[in-house]
Amino acid sequence: LFFDKFVGEWEVIPLEPNLNRINYTYSLTFGSKWLIPFAWLFAQLFWKAYMGNVMRNIKPMAESNEPFLYP
């Protein structure tokens, strides 16, 4: 798209048995300062909604007690 680099990081924080908090942070880098408004719109309008769908899809996998690994 309009950005040069996209970096995302998951952090899983155990809160109690069978309960974890997941923090997801991401950063966009781009070559031109004129693209900052587009990057902000992309993050606010698309990426937040996309990650909400990801979390809803991961929940059943996590609750299934089946081992899974994402390399």
What does this structure look like?
The protein is an alpha+beta fold. It is about 40% helix and about 30% strand. The protein is built from one helix and two strands, in the order ββα. The protein has a two-stranded antiparallel ribbon. Strand 1 and strand 2 form a beta hairpin. It is elongated and about 45 Å long. The model has no long low-confidence stretch (mean pLDDT about 80).
Feature tags:
single chain, elongated, two-stranded antiparallel ribbon
Show the helix and strand layout:
Layout: E1 5-16, E2 19-29, H1 36-63
Antiparallel strand pairs: 1-2
So how many helices? 1
The helix fraction, in percent, is: 25-40%
State Rg.
15 Å
Sheet bearing the most strands, described?
2 strands, antiparallel
Question: Shape, please?
Answer: elongated
Number of strands: 2
**Overall pLDDT level:** 81
TL;DR of this structure?
The chain has 71 residues and is α+β, with helices and mostly antiparallel strands. The chain has one helix at 36-63; strands spanning 5-16, 19-29.
